[in-house]
Amino acid sequence: MAVATTTVRAVNGLSARWAGALEGGTAYSAAGVWPLLAYLADGAKGAARAELAEALGLPASQAAHAAGELLAAMGAMRGLKTALGLWTKRTLELREEWEAGLPAAAHGVLTGEPVADHQALDAWAVKRTGGLIDRMPVTLTEDTQMVLASALTMRTQWLSPFREVELETAYEPWATKPRLGLWRSSTLLDRVGVANTPGGYVTELKVLGNNALDVHLLLGDEGMRPGQVLGAGVDILAGRCPVVPGPRLPYGNVGPGLRVGKMSCMRPEPPSLEVTTAAYEMEASHDLLVLHRLFGLTTARDTSRGHFPGISDFPLAIRSAEQKTMAKFGALGFEAAAATAFGALAGSMPDLRYVTTRISAAFDRPFGFLALHRHTRLVLTAGWVTDPLPIPENLWDDEP
To answer: Which tens digits make up the pLDDT trace of 45-94?
Structure first.
């Protein structure tokens, strides 16, 4: 099932605005938040409805339909699993029209016992994410009337795997201890490019997965903030920021971490792209109410009155809104890792009579990433890498 371009732009727009509020290394998923905001907007009235619509980037009257299409489209993507859950107290009567707009079999029951209810919600989170998330990020009390939640899991393996190496970097915070780097070489120069953005130059590297789920790595000029770099990545996806691809780049230092040079070789060789990046694994928790204006939840937090008469006659307000995320970028894929070692021996000086072009891309200081669906360009997860993985003690144990 296809997802409307307007919905993709709305979700990616939220992802870009969220990036602007980031501090430090983190991962987040606007695609996991957006459907929930959409269903809330569908049942909201007054100022709460207007604020949610502004955060969504779509009229509230279109929100529920767009959310349903989005969840169905994501559910059909290979390597991606999504789910939406709704739990209410037995005494809370929902409006049939609103509940009918939710995915089938989404409705569960809250007993009013916080410990038991949390155990049930945690079990749902574990099952829906394959164990990647072990706890539902929600605060429950005896007064909790309703919980609306989503789960999203993405897995892909690279079409061309990396080799695990020690990361060579002059960036001092990373150079204090050995870091796990990833290296690979290919002849596909168009996987890398440089964009001139309002905040500075950004190097984009596309790492393609075997199921149309890709990760774009983004390295900005030194001094660019995470929000500027990730926002530029979203602009590149939308075609608002043109990219000069690898085959059209001139010789020299042409972008952040990017160099194009001439290399001597023994025999005719095609141009090549050599990539070095950092392996990373991260977990993050987000309290969305801290950024209530960003998510359109300012009025909805007011517990002195109800804001969602389209959901229930019972006066409802938002008491907690949280997200827990994880991301892992390894040699074999996104959320997949393997240890592999190669050894090289020195040889005699060859007769170098040919010349070829070599592009070298190095993501060896803090950078951003966008994990997305290749065909729709929907961003599923994004983040900022500040603490790469250390080298495992047993990485080269199998070397002779």
So the answer is: 999 999 999 999 999 999 999 999 999 999 899 998 888 888 888 888 88
Q: What share of the chain is helix, strand, coil (3-state, %, to 5)?
A: 25, 35, 40
DSSP of 216-239: EEEEEPTT--HHHHHHHHHHHHTT
Rg (CA), the chain: 23
List pLDDT tens digits, range 300-351: 888 888 888 998 888 888 888 888 888 999 999 975 211 111 111 222 334 4
Separation CA 277–CA 369 (nearest Å): 12
> Both tokens of residue 104?
């089938």
Closest C-alpha among 111, 148, 146, 151 to residue 135: 151
Give the HSE-up count for residue 142: Cα atoms under 13 Å, Cβ half-sphere.
0
Of 197-201, 205-209, 303-307, 386-390, where does mean pLDDT reach its minimum? 303-307
CA nearest 394: which of 345, 344, 343, 338? 338
Mind listing the domains of the chain with CATH numbers? 5-76+80-154+284-327 (3.30.497.10), 157-279+330-341+348-385 (2.30.39.10)
SS3 category, 187: coil
Look-up of token digits 């559910």 = 75
